[in-house]
Amino acid sequence: MGKAEYPFEMRPLSDEEGGGWLIIFPDLPGCMSDGETVDEAVKNGIDALECWLQACREAGRPIPFPGNSVGGIFSPRIPRSLHERLVAKAKQEGVSISTLVSSFLAECLGRKEAKPSAA
Question: Mean pLDDT, 10 residues at a time, over the chain (119 residues)?
Fold first, then answer.
């Protein structure tokens, strides 16, 4: 299974999100990057993909097969005040809002999966 087999999605980032381009690998939760140009986003995306796969291998986690994603675009409606807080935090971190929210979701899901079940 080579890294070139994983499909990716790209979209331009608004000025509010920091500008540039976002690249997402839908088959690999939380695997994304961005760049000022399309070429830079792709280069950064390949690096993110390699790091994601390596982290999975090191953790002994299963690696999803390419093309198995069930996700795609996620566009929730949120209150303006929350959006403003996300914009401020994304600027503080130097990332896009999409990257920030995806990181929050991946972190939250990871914590939930790591808790032992009460069975």
Answer: 72 89 90 93 95 93 76 73 90 81 79 56
pTM > 0.70: no
**Structure tokens of 86?**
């996300």
CATH class, domain 3-114, is alpha beta
Domain extents in the chain: 3-114
Vertex 15, ends 98 and 94: CA angle to 5°?
A: 55
C-alpha distances in Å from residue 119, one per residue of 30, 38, 115, 116: 29, 48, 12, 9
Coil, strand or helix: which one is 74?
coil
Cα 87 off chain centre by = 17
